Every structure is written in structure tokens, then in C-alpha cells.
């Protein structure tokens, strides 16, 4: 007899092809990711409890523990998956257009109520312990690698000097917006976002090795 996965809610669903294998339904995984972020925003990472995440997602604990053994494992997958896809890197054909598009998209992300709660807590948790060090390092490197393509294209088009300090330029791309939206918790107007984009452009054009 085939063993049913606890992800399944109805006995009327078709039987699986592989006997004894647990089917991890993508919709359940997505619900658990959302539940994690909701709990995290409310309680902070240190107070996260796997049982409460499962309850918020409306699934059994077995469905949760089948995927991740600890909250750290869950947090790593959910944050990495979201962070590396949440703001696609544009290709408008110009550095000016790319930077403005990135800043506008990033500003929308930073307005989200969950992001405004979770991002500061991520960095606070890093200061308290090393539990999330590898996650933050991996996500940061991944996002910077994506954004570095914008600089590479601009150099190839002759819009930026070949001796630009790329690491500092990447810092300048996001730092002013992050400081205003997350550190200062400001609700930025459209005009302010555009001014930040112009500041980022000016900074990027004036950093060199």
C-alpha cells in the first residue's frame, strides 16, 4: 500500500507513482515561506518557532519538518530564494536607465511591511550570533554579482571608466536608498526616489580604483 504524504489534504487525490515517497507540493512550500516571513516580522528571528509557522501556514508539523529540520534551514531557503529573485536586474540600454530602474524596483521592495521589519532584524541577529552569517554572505554576493552586470555593460558601452572601483560603485548603488528606507524608516516620495537614483549615478561615475 502506498503511504500518503501529510501534504495531501484529501484522500480523493490521485495516488503517487513512487510508493513510499513523500511528495513535496510547491504550494505548501510557498505557504510555509510566507508563514515564516509573517512570523519573523512579528517576533524576530530569535523567537521563531517551527510549530507556530506550521500553524500559520495551515499545515501539519510533519509537512514542515519533512522539508526543513530547523528554523535556520527554513530561513536559509526562504530568504535566499526570495532575495535573489525579488528585484530582477534590468537592461534598458543605458547606465542611467538601469540605475533608475533598479532604484525604483528596490524602493518598492523596501516599502513592504515584512521587508521593513525583517531586514533590520537580519542584521541585528548577525550582530548577536553567527547563525545567519553564511546566509547573509551568500545573498549579498549573489545580489552584487547580479548588479555587477550593470557596471560591466556600462563599461563596455564607454559610459564608465575601466578603472572604476566596482565594489565601491555597487555600495553606492544601494546604500543611500537602504539608509533612508530601512535605517531611517522613511516613506520616500517618488521625487525623493528619483533624487536618490541621481545621487547613486553621480557616485558611481566618480569612484575609481
UniProtKB/TrEMBL annotation:
Ranges for domain HTH tetR-type: 26-86
UniProt keywords, alphabetically: DNA-binding, Transcription, Transcription regulation
Basic and acidic residues bias locations: 1-11
Pfam family, one: TetR_C_11
Entries under SUPFAM superfamilies matching the protein: Homeodomain-like, Tetracyclin repressor-like, C-terminal domain
InterPro entries assigned: Homeodomain-like_sf, HTH-type_TetR-like_transc_reg, HTH_TetR, Tet_transcr_reg_TetR-rel_C_sf, TetR_C
DNA-binding region as annotated in the record: 49-68
Region entry Disordered, spans: 1-20
Stretch forming the signal peptide: none
Superkingdom in the source lineage: Bacteria
Protein name: TetR/AcrR family transcriptional regulator
Amino acid at each position: 500500500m502506498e503511504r500518503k504524504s501529510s501534504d495531501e489534504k484529501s484522500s480523493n487525490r490521485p495516488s503517487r507513482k513512487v510508493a513510499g515517497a513523500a511528495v513535496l507540493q510547491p504550494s505548501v512550500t510557498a505557504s510555509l515561506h510566507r508563514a515564516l516571513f509573517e512570523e519573523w516580522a512579528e517576533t524576530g528571528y530569535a523567537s521563531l518557532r517551527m510549530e507556530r509557522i506550521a500553524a500559520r501556514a495551515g499545515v501539519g508539523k510533519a509537512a514542515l519538518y519533512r522539508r526543513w529540520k530547523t528554523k535556520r534551514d527554513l530561513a536559509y531557503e526562504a530568504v535566499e530564494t526570495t532575495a535573489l529573485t525579488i528585484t530582477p536586474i534590468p537592461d534598458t540600454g543605458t547606465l542611467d536607465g538601469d540605475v533608475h530602474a533598479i532604484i525604483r524596483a528596490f524602493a518598492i521592495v523596501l516599502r513592504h511591511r515584512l521587508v521593513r521589519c525583517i531586514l533590520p532584524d537580519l542584521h541585528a541577529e548577525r550582530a548577536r550570533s553567527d547563525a545567519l552569517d553564511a546566509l547573509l554572505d551568500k545573498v549579498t554576493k549573489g545580489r552584487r554579482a547580479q548588479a555587477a552586470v550593470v557596471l560591466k555593460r556600462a563599461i563596455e558601452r564607454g559610459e564608465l571608466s575601466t578603472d572604476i572601483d566596482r565594489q565601491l560603485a555597487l555600495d553606492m548603488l544601494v546604500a543611500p536608498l537602504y539608509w533612508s528606507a530601512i535605517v531611517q524608516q522613511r516613506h520616500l516620495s517618488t521625487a525623493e526616489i528619483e533624487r536618490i537614483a541621481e545621487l547613486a549615478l553621480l557616485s558611481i561615475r566618480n569612484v575609481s580604483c
